[in-house]
Amino acid sequence: xxxxxxxxxxxxxxxxxxxxxxxxxxxxxxxxxxxxxxxxxxxxxxxxxxxxxxxxxxxxxxxxxxxxxxxxxxxxxxxxxxxxxxxxxxxxxxxxxxxxxxxxxxxxxxxxxxxxxxxxxxxxxxxxxxxxxxxxxxx
Length: 139
What we know:
Largest sheet: none
Distance between the termini: 17 Å
Mean pLDDT: 75
Structural class: mainly alpha
Helix content: 55-70%
Strand content: under 5%
Shape: rod-shaped
Number of strands: 0
Low-confidence stretches: 108-121
Order of helices and strands: HHHH
């Protein structure tokens, strides 16, 4: 009976540690998806602008450009200034999001709570469960 109780307590401990490991893996996955989403959000509008400006904008009959940025003497410069300002604002916003996300999540103590660490290193008692030691007189 005592052996069965010890086995049951260790099975519960193992299940808790497996749940914690799954939660850590899920947290890592969520953080990775957060980073990829922010990067995509920052870079996608610039890819759209590069795709639009990579096209030929000429009137086929006159040979003149048909968009205002190409008719102005400094239109291309203004395009790059606008892109740089957009990137600066986006990176500031992304840094704010990362700092907000980092403050909201508490870092996990993986090494001292690892399932492969010895039971004594995790602050757990090695031996009989408390309900069984109380019956034996605390021994």
